[in-house]
Amino acid sequence: MASRRKAEELIQEGRVQVNGRVVTELGTKANPRTDRITVDGRPLRPADEPLYIVLHKPVNVVTTLADPQGRPTVRDYLRDVRARVFPVGRLDFHSAGLLLLTNDGELALRLTHPRYGIRKVYHVKVEGVPTGATVAQLAAGVTLVEGRTAPATVRVLRSREGKTWLEMTLSEGRKREIRRMCESVGHRVEKLRRVALGPLKLGTLQPGAHRALTAREVIQLLHAVRLA
């Protein structure tokens, strides 16, 4: 009925009861099959079957299910998906590429938690032609306002007419991290596309299109975060 963050707010506000008792402590255990769980006095409906969807998010789309400014959201591309699913992580408004959506809260949490070190691969078009020293600097880590970035894998894919495509593999997810990293070494990002999340690949999926994960892909993701 809500994202993990919103659910935590509901619990802390005292709006959730388990077997008639108000529960406000996060992490309290309950069994939805045997315990009666209510929110604002209404029984919690049974959970949907786990659903895993990969979307090729286009540029100029917000990675949320609703936007108060009226901008396009990822929900606009999932009109045929009846179950409620939530984005795993974020791609900023001007970035494109692989976005996983699911109603599996535990998997989503682990995929975004630094403890599990899930690596994300991006193809990045920057202005100029970075030198070998600059590429090495990006890989070693650069200093941003909130501190030094973690080591990354960076390689040049191709350069042409004063523009360069880089492949950057990161295991952390700071806000606009890649754009800020590249700007800090003098190369503004023109395009950014995520092409992989752990073992999951974007492949040939076109912008705006989505598909359900295969059973093999789901198993690979579960193994990646030690859930299988």
Let me know the average pLDDT.
94
Residue ranges: pLDDT <50 for 5 or more in a row? none
Helix/strand-derived category reads alpha+beta
Q: How large is the count of helical segments?
A: 5
Strand count, sense and barrel status of the largest sheet are:
9 strands, mixed
Question: Overall 3D geometry?
Answer: elongated
Percent strand: 25-35%
Helix-strand topology string: HEEEEEEEHEHEEEEHEEEH
Distance from first to last alpha carbon: 25 Å
Give the fraction of residues assigned to helices: 10-25%
> Quick one: how many beta strands?
15
Compute the CA-based radius of gyration.
Answer: 20 Å
Overview of the structural elements:
By secondary structure, this protein is of the alpha+beta class. The protein is 19% helix and 29% strand. The strands form three sheets. Strands 5, 6, 7, 8, 11, 12, 13, 14 and 15 form a nine-stranded mixed β-sheet that branches. A four-stranded antiparallel β-sheet has the order 2-1-3-4. A hairpin with a 2-residue loop joins β11 and β12 (163-170). The chain is elongated. The chain starts with a helix and ends with a helix.
